[in-house]
Specification:
heterodimer, A: alpha/beta, Rossmann fold, 2 domains, nine-stranded mixed beta sheet, five-stranded parallel beta sheet, 17 strands, elongated, B: alpha/beta, two-stranded antiparallel sheet, 6 helices, 29% helix, 29% strand, binds flavin-adenine dinucleotide, binds adenosine monophosphate
């Protein structure tokens, strides 16, 4: 590898690369075409071998195998990545804003004293310097940033790049070049969601409630609307944090990715962590009192109003139509 | 267990965010401040551990934004000790500068467990929590919902969130710094009367530390409010008119039952 190359930390799920990994590879390929280098994706753990050939946009996929990498823990990931970055000195290391990425990218940047930018939506290179457009303040602000010291650690926001275009990558399977120690954090068990609740990933109509619903009692309004539409109620994280709905109803980064034909977003601001769960949604209609709410950039139709006024009116109108 | 929590002030996103005249920074002088949501969860998690384990809770905060209100509220909720770090600038410190400031104070507190929100929405250079863990040479796990005492003394159990409502249970040897996404319960409310009482009775300790130099490895060229190429078509009118129009749209798309 060389200073023109772009390194990516990929992730797998059940033997396939995650969508984020495919996006990262697409971003890396584009960036590498500007630097004249290669897009190199690193997959850690036993699933990597199976997933590697599917990362089509990568020029090269390096799979590192070691028993310790079967589940994520920070120390071995960090050891390995700092070794790889140190050896290859790429122009950038791209990492997804994922549960693993949000740990590993900043830890690595701190340890290697590298520049880091979070929330990246667009990344390009010009004369050896990186130009990045990054989103922050929950999607309400963008920053154009220039980084001249490389390698840089860049955390990519999901939904920023479209995968596709590459041919089959060259795959290299190696044992860990360094001895890996589990460190002070030990993985114990994966806890899967209980299958007793409504599966919101299978619903054609979803009524999503956000913090704008204000009180638990008001959930009934959303329930009635969902019933009139033949759908289910889902929510943003603060609603789940309040304990008003179970985690299985949460849409977004650590919740579900949904693909309904209709998504009614009520009092939902449209933070990137929520919107990334909406990738497959058809028609999105948003009701929000804030005309500047980022959800209006994702929705096809928007209403600037109090949901407590609009929602009962929609339910009434629907009932009148179907009776 | 001796627990420390970092509480940061962030601009309230409900207000319009202003950009400073040079176009590269947020105008913090024009902002209204609230406590960082995830730090607030970190505090709640610490208070839950205090209640179940008899831990002591120390809150550390920079004298920035409207922090005194937040600190009195933390005290009213049950925090034992409040430490405030003087800060004169209208803008918050840069990432590594912030980590160095908090680290200096935290080293003196000797907490076995440090809880920090795993994110704050005005961070452009990635989250503070892992940077702070590195500065303190402590193990770090973030995106955590729930911290419990471990099976063995000197360890805790954390629940790290993954996509699809999947949670990984992990054990962490102490001392450690944990990036909290959510407490086991929603942050508690305290009545204003208790906050007022705390104002009179809470001693806030000021901890003087040297301000480290801010390195600037990333150079912000421009800040701006995003303008999507395609924005939603806005539906105006009374609630009834809007409702009627929505029904019409759904009918056209065959989305009515
Ligand atoms: C690592 C990580 C993972 C995360 N994972 C997720 C996730 O999986 N899912 C998720 O949703 N979030 C997730 N988040 C949180 C996310 O960043 C946001 O905080 C969250 O999505 C905001 O939820 P909200 O839109 O309900 O609340 P807010 O952002 O507070 O928005 C409430 C909205 O309601 C509007 N409103 C208020 N009153 C009314 C009214 N009467 N009528 C109409 N509108 C009204 C307001 O204008 C505002 O836009 C995650 C965060 C982190 C750091
Ligand atoms: N969505 C998920 N569901 C279950 N486990 C996951 C998920 N994402 C990451 N992991 C865990 O994290 C480990 C490391 O991720 P990876 O880098 O994809 O191999 C995986 O082997 C899993 O143990």
């Amino acid at each position: 590898m060389s200073a023109e190359d772009v390194l990516v930390l990929g992730e797998t799920k059940q033997g396939t690369p995650t969508d984020m990994t495919l996006e990262l590879a697409a971003c890396a390929r584009q960036l590498a075409s500007q630097t004249g280098g290669q897009a190199v994706v690193v997959l850690l753990g036993p699933e990597g071998k199976q997933a590697a050939t599917q990362v089509a946009d990568a020029h090269r996929v390096v799979v590192v195998e070691d028993d310790i990498l079967a589940t994520y823990t920070p120390a071995p990931y960090l050891e390995l990545l700092s070794h790889l970055v140190d050896q290859s000195k790429p122009i950038a290391l791209l990492v997804g804003s994922t549960s693993v990425g949000l740990d590993v990218a900043p830890l690595l940047a701190a340890r290697m004293n590298l520049p880091i930018v979070g929330g990246c939506q667009k990344i390009s290179a010009e004369n050896g310097a990186l130009k990045v457009t990054a989103s922050f303040c929950a999607g309400k602000m963008l920053a154009d940033v220039e980084i001249s010291a490389t390698p840089a650690v860049l955390m990519l926001l999901p939904g920023s790049y479209r995968a596709g275009g590459g041919a089959a990558p060259q795959v290299e399977i190696i044992r860990s070049p360094i001895a890996l120690d589990p460190g002070p954090v030990c993985f114990e068990q994966m806890i899967l969601p209980a299958a007793t609740d409504v599966d919101i990933t299978q619903q054609e109509v979803l009524v999503a409630v956000g913090r704008g619903i204000q009180q638990q009692d008001n959930l009934a309004l959303a329930e009635e609307l969902a019933e009139a539409l033949g759908g289910a109620v889902c929510a943003t994280r603060p609603i789940v944090d309040q304990g008003w709905l179970p985690l299985t109803r949460q849409v977004g980064k650590s919740g579900m990715t949904v693909k309904p034909k209709l998504y009614l977003a009520l009092g939902v601001s449209g933070a990137p962590e929520h919107v990334e769960g909406l990738k497959g949604a058809g028609l999105i209609i948003a009701v929000n009192t804030d005309p500047k709410a980022p959800i209006f950039e994702t929705a096809q139709y928007g209403v600037v109003a109090d949901l407590l006024d609009v929602v009962p009116a929609i339910t009434e109108a629907l009932k009148a139509k179907t009776n | 267990m001796n627990i420390a929590v970092v509480l940061r002030q962030v601009p309230d996103l409900i207000e319009t965010l202003e950009i400073a005249d040079d176009g590269t920074r947020l105008d913090y002088g024009a902002a209204r401040f609230i406590v960082n949501e995830w730090d607030n969860h970190a505090l709640e998690q610490a208070l839950l551990l205090k209640e179940s384990e008899g831990s002591s809770v120390t809150v550390v905060a920079l004298d920035f934004g409207e922090v005194d209100n937040t600190l009195y509220e933390a005290s009213a909720k049950g925090a034992d000790t409040i430490v405030k770090i003087p800060w004169d600038s209208e803008e918050p410190p840069a990432l590594r500068q912030a980590a160095a400031l908090y680290a200096e104070v935290l080293r003196g507190i000797g907490a076995e467990l440090i809880l920090v929100g795993c994110q704050s929405h005005d961070e452009l250079e990635g989250p503070l929590a892992p940077q702070l863990a590195f500065t303190l040479n402590l193990p770090y796990v973030g995106v955590v919902r729930g911290v419990q005492p471990g099976d063995q003394p000197g360890s805790i159990r954390v629940f790290k969130e993954f996509p699809g409502a999947v949670v990984a249970r992990m054990s962490v040897r102490l001392p450690a710094l944990i990036g909290v996404l959510a407490a086991e319960k929603a942050p508690r409310y305290v009545p204003v009367s208790r906050i007022r009482a705390a104002m009179k009775s809470t001693p806030i300790r000021e901890s003087q530390v040297d301000v480290p130099q801010a390195a600037a490895p990333v150079n912000v060229l421009r800040l701006y409010v995003p303008e999507a190429p395609e924005r939603a078509e806005m539906l105006d009118g009374s609630a009834e008119e809007v409702a009627e129009r929505i029904c019409q749209i759904l009918a056209e798309k065959g989305l009515l039952r």
